[in-house]
């Protein structure tokens, strides 16, 4: 099976490539990745000779077309993925998330190739803290940020290409991932590497915002489940019942790293900050039989902390610049 993985040098994509090589002896993987600030060749180290990395842009049709033509399936992870960056400069989000997805869809349409689209729960907007409802596949789209609105637009392009051109596609919308190889601009790795460096963790606003955490391996197992058993044209929500507010997460990181739970700072809030995400993954569980394996957030987080402690050479080159950029905006 020849698999084209876009964004395979990023956080979730690199984990997907490693898992695929480990678990699927018949898989030949080509990674198409622009290697932006968020992509890292080192994340693919040790993945073996069944993985080929092509550096290129998903919005460049001349690059994309021949790679799609020789693939059995495209799994599309590549994106500009960070909300804070999208507030400072939305333009790469529009190009990569919208034009990039359009370019891939045109190529899979031309060559009749199976396509799986990786998306986010943020397309549904946010929930109140006390709302008993969670997001389902029927929740109305209501994105808040330039990031989430470009992801929402990309999902709608996929739906239109399925309906109008019979492109054999599926979509998944997942909640917040954690695990190894996540860029240190993101919440959990930022705080872990802060504590390693003797910097106090930074909580936006009052730290009450809730995210629904899932281990990256559970996300990627769900993606394989959908690729193998999902119905063409369908959307599946992926979540592991992992709701926690940001303050609770920071306190747990501090405790697991041997610090006082109160050693954090409250900093400027994110403009338009989504309050709460929560996923109801009943369709994925009942229709396709998927279940999360990493049910214990505490031990998953402890393993993630150990990974950042043991892999300092992977994140260290970016730490000073990431913190300087946050400090400049009061975060
Ligand atoms: P990431 O930022 O860690 O990685 C993105 C990768 O895409 C990088 O390797 C980058 O170099 C590459 N890329 C960016 N622009 C490109 C372009 N124009 N052409 C080719 N490659 C390009 O992101 P991530 O956290 O791994 O997210 C992967 C996907 O999963 C995204 O589509 C994101 O929306 C989605 N998602 C993420 C989460 C999460 O919690 N991180 C949750 C749900 C969905
Ligand atoms: O829900 C899925 C989404 O999760 C993905 O689509 C995005 O690609 C991914 O980045 C993530 O988005 P969030 O905005 O939720 O993730 P982030 O790690 O940036 O922030 C998580 C929460 O922590 C959020 O409420 C903001 C807060 N935060 C973040 C940082 C970086 C802080 O309190 N302090 C921080 O330093």
What does this structure look like?
The chain is an alpha/beta fold and 331 residues long. The chain has helices spanning 11-23, 61-69, 83-88, 91-111, 146-165, 187-196, 216-229, 246-256, 282-288, 297-310, 312-328, and strands spanning 2-6, 28-33, 51-55, 73-76, 114-120, 169-174, 177-178, 202-204, 210-212, 214-215, 235-238, 243-245, 265-267. It contains eleven helices and 13 strands. The longest helix has 21 residues, at 91-111. It starts with a strand and ends with a helix. The structure holds nicotinamide-adenine-dinucleotide and 2'deoxy-thymidine-5'-diphospho-alpha-D-glucose (DAU).
Outline of this structure?
With 331 residues, this protein is of the alpha/beta class.
Element-by-element helix/strand order: EHEEHEHHEHEEHEEEHEEHEHHH
Overall pLDDT score:
98
CATH top-level class of the domain at 2-182 and 213-242 and 276-294: Alpha Beta
CATH fold-type name of the domain at 2-182 and 213-242 and 276-294:
Rossmann fold
Q: Which term fits the overall shape?
A: globular
């Amino acid at each position: 099976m020849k698999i084209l993985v876009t964004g395979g040098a990023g956080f979730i994509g690199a984990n997907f490539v490693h898992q695929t090589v480990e678990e699927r002896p018949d898989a030949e993987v080509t990674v198409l990745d622009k290697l932006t600030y968020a992509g890292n060749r080192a994340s693919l180290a040790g993945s073996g000779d069944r993985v080929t990395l092509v550096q290129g842009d998903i919005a460049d049709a001349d690059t994309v077309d021949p790679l799609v033509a020789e693939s059995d399936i495209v799994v599309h992870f590549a994106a500009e993925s960070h909300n804070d960056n999208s507030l400072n400069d939305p333009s790469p989000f529009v190009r990569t998330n919208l034009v990039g997805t359009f370019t891939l869809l045109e190529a899979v349409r031309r060559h009749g190739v199976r396509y799986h689209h990786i998306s986010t729960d943020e397309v549904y907007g946010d929930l109140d803290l006390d709302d008993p409802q969670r997001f389902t596949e029927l929740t109305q789209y209501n994105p808040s940020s330039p990031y989430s609105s470009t992801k929402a637009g990309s999902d709608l392009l996929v739906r239109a290409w399925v309906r109008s051109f019979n492109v054999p596609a599926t979509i998944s919308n997942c909640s917040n991932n954690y695990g190894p190889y996540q860029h240190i601009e993101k919440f959990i790795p930022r705080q872990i590497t802060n504590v390693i460096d003797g910097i106090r963790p930074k909580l936006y606003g009052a730290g009450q915002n809730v995210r629904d955490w899932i281990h990256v391996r559970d996300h990627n197992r769900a993606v394989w489940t959908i690729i193998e058993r999902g119905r063409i044209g369908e959307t599946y929500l992926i979540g592991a019942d992992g709701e926690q507010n940001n303050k609770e997460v920071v306190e747990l990181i501090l405790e697991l790293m041997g610090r006082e739970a109160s050693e954090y700072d409250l900093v400027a809030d994110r403009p338009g900050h989504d309050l709460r995400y929560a996923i109801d993954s009943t369709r994925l569980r009942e229709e396709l039989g998927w279940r999360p394996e990493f049910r214990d957030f505490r031990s998953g987080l402890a393993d993630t902390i150990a990974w950042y402690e043991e892999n300092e050479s992977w994140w260290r080159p970016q730490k000073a610049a990431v913190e300087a950029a946050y400090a400049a905006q009061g975060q």
